[in-house]
Predict the structure.
Amino acid sequence: MIALKNTIALTAVCLAALMFGLEISSVPVILPTLEKVLHGNFNNLQWIMNAYTIACTTILMATGILADRFGRKRIFIISIIMFGAASLICGLSQTIPILIISRFLQGMSAGAMLICQVAILSYQFTSTKERAKAFGTWGIVFGAGLGFGPIIGGLIVAVLSWEWVFLIHAVLSVLTLVLIFNGVQESKNPEAKRLDILGITTLSVSVFCLTFFITQGSAHGFYNVTSIAAITISVLSFIAFIIIENTIQYPMFDFSVFRIRNFSGALFGSMGMNFSFWPFMIYLPIYFQSTLQYDSITAGLSLLCYTLPTLVIPPFAERLSIRYQPGVVIPFGLFTIGLGFVLMWIGSSAEHASWLTMLPGTVLAGTGLGLTNTPVTNTTTGSVDSARAGMASGIDMSARMISLAINIAVMGFILVSGVLSYLTNHLSISLKASEWHSLSEKIAAGNITSIHQISQLDSSGSIAHKAIVHGFSWVILYGAAGVWVLAFFSLMSFSSWKTPVSK
């Protein structure tokens, strides 16, 4: 009976992990469709993704404490109900604002779901062998959601409609709830700490305002009142966050762990992956569909070259990490991601660019991600004592989500800037600055034909096509440079700091 309940519980947790992974990797494929169907602009597409990631960041640290205090099963059930309801609203949305708001709710529930999964598996499976097997299965399913999400999203759009990319999770949520009620055991931590509401609020406000500044400042100017107010609030909120975390009794961020060289080195690895690989996944479907003119299924298949190596490589990464230490494997993995981006830059600039010219770069970038991800996760939690492992994991996940949210915005800004630079240098027409920017955003979102409405000088769309290729070349080089800088910081953190590792 116990074995059966554990199997049911593991199935429930794996279904939740599958939903979490799919909502990250399947949605980018349908962004060009959403832009057309819901009449959104380029900023809207960014916020459809950023609402999810920012919300995840907001809830991550709070969920662990709430689950410990009120029960992991109870919070897991609430998160699944919220995720299913938010997914239903996403699928029924007929306007961009409603979709963005529902994506935020979906992200909050997904973040809560993720934290509960780890806590439930840790409690449900008591023996070391069973726990290792359970976490191994969970990791495979979670990775499958991320890896196969692009083709699943493309197939759903082709066979059904974009709405079912979200609605499918409402159905899966019901099934997951049935399994939870029949298999998951309730557990609590009587010594749960207080909820750090001030820390959570100030960090969330800081990240949101910085993202808002990047996305809206590019359109309306970085020096207008709204933009200045946003960046000011972001900076002040972050300063307040640091002060709060260093003065309260139970902070969600214990800054003393940054003095542990292994932890800091691994954290740079977390940031590096989400500085380059994952945010670029938001824009790759736009490149495949608008620049290469692929349909949603072909774009999804092309993206598999980018994501599947992340499933195959982790077992090898674990062996390399044991043999050569994380301090070598993590920086090497980040360097490999950057090298993959350089090859993608070469492939995207080819005269007859296709998924084949992009193939070496996408595979190598995915390989680098696979080399980095598992060692980073194991090192952040393994480099601190067991009492602080949950907090260390929370910092790791927060660093990932914050880096992802910010760099989705930054890559979008760079893409539009690259398109704008090419247009202004190759189109001899007189437009206001706002009109140039609006045109650049439309082309960056994949609307190549929008240029016909303004200029007959590019009736074939060749300038628009070259402009978006030019913009993507900027984004790819930014991804390569950024991850290489963080690879250097990671290497220096592992090798040069002399603070002993806490056990």
Summary: The mean pLDDT is 80. The radius of gyration is 22 Å. The longest helix spans residues 389-426. The chain has 19 helices and no strands.
